[in-house]
């Protein structure tokens, strides 16, 4: 057949044959490339790829094909085309929104029902137009996914290299180290300021009584947990462009990284204890010796936010059961968090501020409890209370910050973060005088433990970077420079 493409398309659309396999494939293919192109950092493992090939492609093809055959062999065989169309209209919103979201939304459920009723009332049966439309709609996510894959192959990994011999650092002191990260805990300057308006002096007094050193001007280098932690654990800047060779922030934080390698070289046993498996969802190769979540237990259709585990008893148990080893604990506490991520009805700055302050108070109670326990069981421990970023109070919702922010207080609200360290050694003041941001946190700690001040010769610039395009996280600007001055446009 030497038909032109247009003639072939017309033939496909107007002939009487049914194509249930192609119909199912079109739905599954669009849903899969749409999901992958928007969540690639969550689903970039081979295990997940195989699962989603089955979930989207095989299931949708199977469902549409079986339904069409059942109708074809029944007394309603004149409605095969409508049955295929209905199957497509049911599967697509289920894939895109999820059954629970559709059932929870009267508007979404009503729209699906109206579309299905319309098929029968107006005897619409040419689902082939829908197949063509879905393949056309797939073009944009396919291009986006292709760009992601291309960048993964071509992005340089040079930023990960250390500028000195810090990987060979030998500790002269080996206390157990507890790096407790209360997500989004704002720094003292922010909490006292006009945006937060909260007196946190009672908790700060508690920390000072426990011999913590406070760093009131500490701030994060990046605005998100993933970017901040990947920079922190590599002790290097990536400028929000860290992904390469299919390694993303979660792989860098939970997998093999310079901080963990240095600790293991000094015979430390490593623990990752978290309330939610947010950092585990793309199935990274876990380099920690212990993790309270097993990768095999994780759901596929989740960002890890809904699976919560109380960690207090787990921390206590691991401390008690590991008294004979040098231990490093990375403890992820998702309080206070930050203001609501997305805009929704009724969202406003003051309501979000109040909820955030309530979360601060809950975080303080928990931190006091765990600090008291650690001191009782491990009095010589080094305890680091270090937040990954600020609380975003002052915005209506957190994603509103993904733009070029000019207000200095709002910029500080994004980055100003809590840091308090119990060094248990007055000599720390010889090492931490320049400690301002997470990218230099562990270099400072390792310099102190190895008693090697030469490691401080390669501190990274204390700049903070913010994304200004929510569709492309590599588009960043220097929101705060090395001297603490905010950006001017």
TrEMBL record:
Keyword field: Membrane, Transmembrane, Transmembrane helix
Transmembrane segments: 21-38, 50-71, 83-103, 109-124, 131-153
Keyword Protein biosynthesis: no
InterPro entries with a match to the protein in the record: Alkaline_phosphatase_core_sf
SUPFAM superfamilies: Alkaline phosphatase-like (SSF53649)
Protein name in the entry: Sulfatase N-terminal domain-containing protein
Organism encoding this protein: Flavobacterium alvei
């Amino acid at each position: 057949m030497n038909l032109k493409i247009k003639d072939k398309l017309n033939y496909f659309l107007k002939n009487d044959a049914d194509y249930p396999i192609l119909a199912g494939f079109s739905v599954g293919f669009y849903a899969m490339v749409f999901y992958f192109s928007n969540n690639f950092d969550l689903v970039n493992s081979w295990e997940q790829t195989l699962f989603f090939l089955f979930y989207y492609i095989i299931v949708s093809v199977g469902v549409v094909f079986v339904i069409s055959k059942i109708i074809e062999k029944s007394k309603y065989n004149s409605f095969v085309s409508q049955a295929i169309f209905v199957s497509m209209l049911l599967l697509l919103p289920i894939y895109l929104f999820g059954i629970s979201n559709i059932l929870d939304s009267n508007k979404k459920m009503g729209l699906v029902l109206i579309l299905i009723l319309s098929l029968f009332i107006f005897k619409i049966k040419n689902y082939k137009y829908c197949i063509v439309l879905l393949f056309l709609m797939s073009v944009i996510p396919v291009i986006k996914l292709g760009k992601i894959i291309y960048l993964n192959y071509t992005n340089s990994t040079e930023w990960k290299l250390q500028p000195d011999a810090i990987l060979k650092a030998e500790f002269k002191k080996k206390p157990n180290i507890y790096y407790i990260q209360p997500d989004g805990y704002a720094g003292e300057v922010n909490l006292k300021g006009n945006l937060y308006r909260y007196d946190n002096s009672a908790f700060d007094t508690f920390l000072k009584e426990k011999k913590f050193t406070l760093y009131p001007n500490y701030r994060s280098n990046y605005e998100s947990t993933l970017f901040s932690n990947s920079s922190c654990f590599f002790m290097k800047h990536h400028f929000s462009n860290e992904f390469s060779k299919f390694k993303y922030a979660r792989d860098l934080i939970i997998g093999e990284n310079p901080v963990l390698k240095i600790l293991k070289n000094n015979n430390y046993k490593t623990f990752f204890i978290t309330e939610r498996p947010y950092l585990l969802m793309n199935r990274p190769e876990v380099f920690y010796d212990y993790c309270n979540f097993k990768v095999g237990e994780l759901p596929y259709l989740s960002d890890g936010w809904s699976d919560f585990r109380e960690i207090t008893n787990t921390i206590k148990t691991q401390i008690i059961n590991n008294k004979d080893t040098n231990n490093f604990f990375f403890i992820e506490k998702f309080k206070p968090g930050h203001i609501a991520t997305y805009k929704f009805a009724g969202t406003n700055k003051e309501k979000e501020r109040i909820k955030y302050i309530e979360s601060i108070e809950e975080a303080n109670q928990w931190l006091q409890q765990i600090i008291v326990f650690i001191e009782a069981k491990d009095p010589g421990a080094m305890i680091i209370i270090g937040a990954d970023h600020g609380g975003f109070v002052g915005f209506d919702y957190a994603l509103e910050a993904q733009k070029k922010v000019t207000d200095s207080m709002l910029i500080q609200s994004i980055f100003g973060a809590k840091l308090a360290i119990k060094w248990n050694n007055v000599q720390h003041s010889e090492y931490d005088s320049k400690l301002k941001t997470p990218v230099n946190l562990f270099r400072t700690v390792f310099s102190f433990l190895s008693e090697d001040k030469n490691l401080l010769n390669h501190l990274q610039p204390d700049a903070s970077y913010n994304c200004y395009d929510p569709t492309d996280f590599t588009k960043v600007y220097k929101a705060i420079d090395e001297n603490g001055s905010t950006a001017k446009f």
